Amino acid sequence: MMIHHQIADSLTSADAPGVWTALDRSIRDLLREERLGRLTVGQARLHVADLGQRIEQQLRTGSAVDDPTAEQTVERMRVALREIDQPVLELRILEDLARALRAQGRFAVAALLLDDGINLARQMGDATQEGRMLRLQGHVHRQMGRLVQADAFTQRSLVCARAMGEPRDESASLNGLGTIAFEMGRWTEAGTFYTGALMLADAHDLALLQAQIANNLGVLRLLTGNADEALSELLKSIALNQRSGDDGLLVLAYYNLGMVYLEKGQWAASESNFDQSGRLNGVVGNQQAVAMTHLGRAMLAQNRHDLLLARRLAGRALDAFGWLGDDLGLADGQKVLGLIQIRMGQLAEAHASLTNSLTTCERLGAPLGVIEAQEGLAEYHLTRAEFGAADRLLESAIAGYDALTAPTRARAARNRLTSLRALR
To answer: What is the distance between the alpha carbons of residues 9 and 286, in angstroms, rounded to a whole number?
Structure first.
């Protein structure tokens, strides 16, 4: 099972192709204002428009994925935006561009733009927009594995939403806090946040949020050992999405369905859902989902005993996570690669992969990742007949699962420990 599942947040749809339409609109508005003579610093405005069109082209063609000059263009855009005296339009461009860059996996650059947007919204006295920018900043930091910072940003967004009496934003912030609590291993707290978010979404008929929360509850149910409940929640998410029409969310939901079927040992169904997620993502362009799907397929190939394919897919995932700067994804990929290397008899490489995974998860404060790396290292020591070391690692994993309130996983680890002790 994987650390890194596809958690849906309140900005999924904004990271789909519709973001190009939003950026187009912002740039067109800027040019129209210039032509009508309503802007006084015309050269700066036209410079912003030119940079915006250049960035948009880079993102549309995918060149931003590999071309560092895209980041230089964004930095020039930040400077130019500060020179204009159109704060509402400036805020729109900052948000549109941050969402587009986030979809392309340019998290660090997106975070810089969001810092500008948060400061500008605060100067404008627009608490609603400040809260939304804070929430997006929380999502970006979560995707970079900076969970403490993500939690702080999202808590601030919740304060703004409640102060302004915005139920949609409050529900979205609670959902965001649930995703962060989930990744920090506070699963009971995550369930409480999701429940609060769902109550608001149900009360105000917020279909997209209902679908996102159902997806997230499905992931939570899966990791706590309730695969059938997870399946039910994910199918509900897909059904709800028929009202919201968010392909970005469907990419996540179908991926997670693939993981549920993988857990249930239904390989064909798992592959089918990974395929559907990948087809949709060909349009959506979520780079993190690309990396995740490589890793899901690696696990599927491992279960089908195609170890060469599994190792190749895990390597692709690691390359993608490395480019994204996603340390938690890297740790997950190293864990999966380490298990594949054990089965291939590459024990020295396996130990290095699993140790790196463990160290990274400890640094990030990701308890599930720590536990899974410990279980992987236990398998390494078992292969070497080092039973004492394997025993200690499994004991630690069991304690970790108990702390997470994951009884099914704790029971499986206890059964593994019992079998080990019977061998000694």
So the answer is: 13
> Average pLDDT of the chain?
84
Task: Give the other-Cβ count within 10 Å of 79's Cβ.
Answer: 12
Which DSSP symbol is given to 326?
-
Q: Name the DSSP class of 145.
A: T
DSSP string covering 260-314, please? Answer: HHHHTT-HHHHHHHHHHHHHHHHHH--HHHHHHHHHHHHHHHHHTT-HHHHHHHH
What is the total residue count of the chain?
424
How far apart CA 412 and CA 390 sit, in angstroms, is: 15
Q: How far apart are CA 60 and CA 17, in angstroms?
A: 9
What is the C-alpha to C-alpha distance for residues 159 and 156, in angstroms, rounded to an integer? 5
pLDDT band at 102 (very low <50, low <70, confident <90, very high): confident
| Structure confidence at residue 6 (pLDDT) | 58
| Ramachandran assignment for 423, one of left (phi > 0), alpha (psi -120 to 50 degrees), beta (any other) | alpha
Angle, in degrees to the nearest 10, between helices 18-35 and 87-103: 150
Which residue carries 């369905």 as its tokens? 257
What would the two tokens of residue 207 be? Answer: 């279909």
Instruction: Report residue 327 CA to chain centroid gap.
Output: 12
Chain segment 192-205, per-residue pLDDT in tens: 999 999 999 999 99
User: By the 8 A CB rule, do 396 and 361 touch?
Assistant: no
Q: Which two tokens stand for residue 3?
A: 């650390």
The token pair that represents 367 in the structure block: 């308890």
Instruction: Say whether pLDDT at 172 is over 70.
Output: yes
Q: Quick one: tokens of 346?
A: 């590459």
Which of 308, 312, 273 shows the shortest CA–CA distance to 295?
312
pLDDT at 46: 52
